[in-house]
Design a protein that fits this description.
By secondary structure, the protein is α+β, with helices and mostly antiparallel strands. It is about 20% helix and about 20% strand. The longest helix has 16 residues, at about 465-480.
């Protein structure tokens, strides 16, 4: 059974809130202020470049946003800036009525021109958006008067997962790369908070009195940039922070009488991307043998200390009928050794397998600042050694990793847009295309027929036929894998009991930090 610390996600909201304790003030001394220790750099608040792309942000609203009261299901997508559900307007076309009377934080009025301009910018090559492939199914968004837009997709799938992006005023769209836009440090959105001040180590947000929805009772939100895991844990113990995210191995250390801990299930996977430029990992039987040689249950137990679930593909059980239980790998060392023998990889003098002068060895790179990726890399190397496979883990920077996908394995994470199964799977498993992210199927390995099935599934409307396609996709992938997927993570958080009635966390994407967990819907908190 999965271990839960503090409170169960699926429990009633009241269990999350707890009772008022001696800590009646936020760490900053105000009863309506919360101080959160953030592990990610502050700034970069540009939705056109990926900030808030899944519809959760204190600064921005999308046309729709995730809505759920548990983390065990894929969230529903509820209207936000959209006034209601999409209205069919023809094949693969939908009309989206917009909410009226909405103002941006700079006082300007929201209308259809802002939606059109925001999405056009994401698709503009001059803007160089990092998420252009996320909206690739959108053929066009056009204004239908000031209070509606028409959306055309290249698929019959539900359009809502592609309409979560935070909307900017059209006046704030710039004709240059998105990384250089003013909104990176001066966000202008329709969300419940506005940015009062920003410096490298601290961001201060204040609740808007003119927010179109219910005003936030948490009036002031302070993020402190604290990249070191141990330093964030200490900030909770010392009382200088009211909440933070921590890796599983540290979460128990902060639990106390007034500090609760909670884990949120996610579609955030960790796995090993394998290079085409290495003779061993280029061998499909070697990749299959590695998948059979890792005990994922033991990895979840020992490395994630129970906070996760085994992953054999990018499709989690939360996707219901689309999940294929028969496509999951079971550890089978004898079969793994037999596959390596069949492929001609025989043990050398030092125990490492060899074939035609090549050795069964590969360097495994991971982000040196990420302790969890380090632990997964070390565990994977230990699991491969009995098979005669030498994995050499090494921590480094993303700058180096980005240049080494051709010859090195990499500990990657994924699941950035999981509220559509198409987005969750397509870029990870499909053959690379010219505008693919460097993290999408880096080895460019694809089983025969897989691309065609992925394309057919992405064009299909939701229903039993699409679910069957995804079950077949998983089975096809499992026969000739491109990665070694390891686990879906549970994101672990600690928060100080300040007497708030909180909302329960939901199933989270790859992105986490203190914008998620108990705080993803902060504007709904009440006393």
């Amino acid at each position: 059974m999965k271990r839960r610390v503090g409170v169960a996600i699926g429990a009633a909201v009241a269990l999350l809130a707890g009772c008022s304790s001696a800590a009646e003030d936020g760490a900053g001394g105000s009863t309506d202020q919360i101080v959160l220790a953030e592990g990610y750099e502050l700034g970069g608040y540009n939705p056109v470049n990926g900030y808030s792309e899944t519809g959760v942000s204190p600064f921005y609203d999308g046309l729709y946003r995730p809505s759920a009261d548990t983390d065990t299901v894929v969230p529903a997508l509820a209207p936000a800036l959209a006034d209601r559900e999409p209205e069919p307007a023809g094949p693969n076309r939908w009309r989206i009525p917009l909410r009226t009377g909405v103002a941006f934080s700079d006082g300007s009025a929201f209308d259809s021109a802002d939606v059109v301009a925001t999405y056009a910018a994401v698709r503009d090559p001059e803007v160089a958006s990092e998420i252009s492939t996320s909206v690739a199914p959108i053929v066009a968004i056009t204004a239908d008067g000031p209070d509606a837009v028409t959306v055309e997709l290249n698929t019959a799938a539900d359009p809502k997962p592609y309409l979560l992006l935070g909307i900017l005023p059209s006046e704030n769209i710039e004709d240059k790369p998105a990384a250089d836009w003013a909104v990176n440090t001066q966000p202008v959105g329709t969300g419940p908070y506005t940015l009062e001040s920003l410096r490298p180590d601290q961001a201060v947000l204040v609740a808007r009195d003119d927010y179109w929805g219910e005003q936030a009772q948490v009036r002031r939100l302070v993020y402190t940039y604290t990249p070191d895991d141990n330093a964030r844990a200490q900030s909770m113990v010392s009382g200088s922070a009211d909440g933070t995210n921590l890796p599983p191995r540290l979460i128990d250390s902060i639990k106390s009488e007034d500090v609760q801990t909670v884990a949120a299930q996610s579609a955030d996977w960790r796995g090993i991307a394998l290079p085409a430029g290495n003779p061993f990992t280029a061998d499909v039987k070697a990749r299959l043998a590695m998948n059979l040689g890792i005990d994922r249950d033991a990895l979840v137990r020992d490395v994630l200390v129970g906070y996760g679930r085994p992953a054999s593909t990018p499709v989690a059980e939360a996707y219901g009928d689309a999940y294929n239980a028969d496509a999951q790998y079971r550890v089978d060392m004898d079969r793994a050794r037999a596959l390596l023998d069949e492929a001609g990889w025989r043990a050398g003098g030092d125990g490492v397998r060899e074939k035609a002068g090549a050795r069964a060895t590969v360097e495994l790179l991971y982000n040196a600042q990420d302790t969890l990726r380090r632990d997964l890399a070390v565990a994977f190397a230990a699991a491969m050694k009995p098979l005669g496979i030498e994995i050499r883990p090494r921590g480094t920077s993303w700058d180096e990793i980005d240049t080494r996908f051709g010859d090195s394995a990499v500990v990657l994470g994924g699941g950035s847009t999981p509220y559509s199964i198409d987005s969750q799977v397509y870029d990870t498993l499909h053959t690379r295309v010219p505008d693919s992210s460097p993290y999408s199927n880096p080895g460019n390995f694809t089983a025969p027929g897989l691309d065609e099935m992925l394309e057919q599934a992405s064009r299909s409307a939701s229903g039993p036929a699409k679910d069957e396609l995804y079950r077949n996709i998983q089975a096809t992938y499992a026969a000739e894998p491109s990665h070694v997927f390891l686990a879906f993570l549970d994101h672990t958080y600690g928060y100080r009991d300040l007497g708030w009635q909180q909302t329960a966390p939901i199933m989270e994407p790859h992105s986490h930090g203190v914008s998620w967990g108990p705080w993803w819907n902060l504007q709904a908190w009440t006393r």
